[in-house]
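Practice problem 4.
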């Protein structure tokens, strides 16, 4: 899984997913919300509508076929067991992303970490459908429970493993919920947290995690993290895959690898 992510086949897959998402979003917003550039106050219904428009389906193909086409985007190193690693990344994907990692940010971030060290495990958040409804209501509770429990399980089985948490978009909401569920003992042992386009907002503290352990990446013009009360998707929200090397460098510093 480490070498094929760095092949020339990966970039076209990621680009096609991003371009399809952009094209579908443009079609829906142009037809349904022609004056989105105007400043106006949104009701709760309006916010929900914009979120629903902002996260279109990535196509009619089944999730299983899309996972296979994505080149093995499911990562379950923690739940499948095996030898303890120096690092374990637990990542929560964004709304409507396929597999348990998502191709836009999760898999590129995993690849960036695997370039730094081969001694890293990768775990996507399961029990999490990454649905629009979940984003509207503040993030998946079952996904958060999975992230919190998996972190605790890894620490119990592998006391020397340094646990890294990350989340993209709604995955950021999931991460906030997860750390709030953790015992102080587990939260204290989290080595680093990385947020990409956090739907909770770039200035929202991560519960139980010191600020110096957190990197919250929020691109200029990304309304999702700059202004969560006006959750309109812009292209700035769809390009975090280009910032994964910076995120990996932050993890390297915090983990001391």
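Answer key:
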């Amino acid at each position: 899984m480490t070498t094929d992510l760095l092949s020339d086949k990966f970039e076209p897959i990621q680009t096609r997913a991003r371009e399809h998402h952009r094209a579908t979003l443009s079609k829906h917003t142009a037809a349904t919300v022609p004056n989105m550039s105007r400043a106006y106050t949104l009701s709760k219904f309006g916010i929900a509508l914009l979120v629903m428009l902002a996260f279109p389906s990535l196509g009619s193909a089944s999730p299983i076929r899309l996972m296979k086409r994505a080149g093995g985007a499911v990562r379950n190193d923690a739940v499948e067991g095996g030898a303890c690693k120096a690092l374990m990344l637990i990542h929560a994907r964004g709304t409507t992303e396929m597999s348990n990692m998502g191709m836009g940010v999760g898999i590129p971030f995993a690849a960036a970490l695997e370039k730094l060290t081969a001694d890293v495990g990768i775990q996507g958040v399961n029990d999490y459908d990454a649905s629009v409804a979940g984003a509207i209501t503040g993030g998946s509770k079952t996904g958060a429970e999975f992230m919190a429990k998996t972190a605790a399980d890894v620490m119990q089985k592998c006391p020397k493993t340094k646990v890294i948490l990350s989340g993209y978009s709604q995955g950021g909401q999931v991460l906030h919920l997860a750390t709030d569920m953790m015992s102080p003992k587990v939260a204290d042992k989290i080595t680093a947290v990385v947020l990409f386009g956090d739907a909770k907002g770039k200035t929202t503290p991560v519960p139980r995690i010191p600020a110096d352990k957190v990197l919250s990446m929020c691109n200029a013009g990304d309304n999702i993290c700059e202004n969560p009360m006006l959750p309109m998707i812009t292209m700035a929200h769809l390009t975090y895959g280009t910032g994964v090397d910076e995120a990996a460098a932050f993890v390297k510093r915090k983990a001391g690898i």
